[in-house]
Every structure is written in C-alpha cells, then in structure tokens.
Specification:
By secondary structure, this protein is mostly beta strands. The chain has one domain. It is 7% helix and 24% strand. The protein contains one helix and three strands, in the order E-E-E-H. It has a three-stranded antiparallel beta sheet, with no helix packed on it. A hairpin with a 6-residue loop joins strand 2 and strand 3. The longest helix has 5 residues. The mean pLDDT is 88.
Length: 71
C-alpha cells in the first residue's frame, strides 16, 4: 500500500538501513495526536516513523506507541 507521491518528509527519501528509495510511506497520526509518516522498506523490511515537522530522525518507539505500550 502506497499513497500518491507528495512532499517527502525529511528522513523518508531512502531506507536508513539499505538505501532503497521505493518505499511505502503512509501518513498517520500517532500517540498524542502528532502527524507522522510510517515508512516501510520492501527490500530489507526496515520500518520507522518520522514526524511531519521533524528533522529527519526516526521517532523513538515510545513516542509512536505511547508510554507503557512498548513491546
């Protein structure tokens, strides 16, 4: 599942693990109502979340899942 091309959020141009550029990017709202982009790489299966207004660094899992919901 991929959404139509739009502005690429910093950090989501290429997979951080393998460099693949054909990624699945899905905009969503994460814990606390923060807008983010979920990125999944079909080549190496790396996944990350990036804040729409972020600096290109992946969000920590606790920011995405909310406090006490890490697994």
């Amino acid at each position: 599942m991929s959404q139509p091309q739009s502005i690429v959020v910093p950090g989501t141009h290429a997979c951080l693990r393998c460099g693949e550029t054909e990624l699945t990017r899905i905009r969503m709202t994460i814990s606390g109502g923060r807008p983010a982009v979920f990125v999944s790489c079909p080549s190496c299966e790396q996944t990350n979340w990036f804040a729409l207004d972020g600096d290109g660094s992946p969000l920590p899992r606790e920011d995405v899942m909310g406090p006490g919901k890490q697994s």
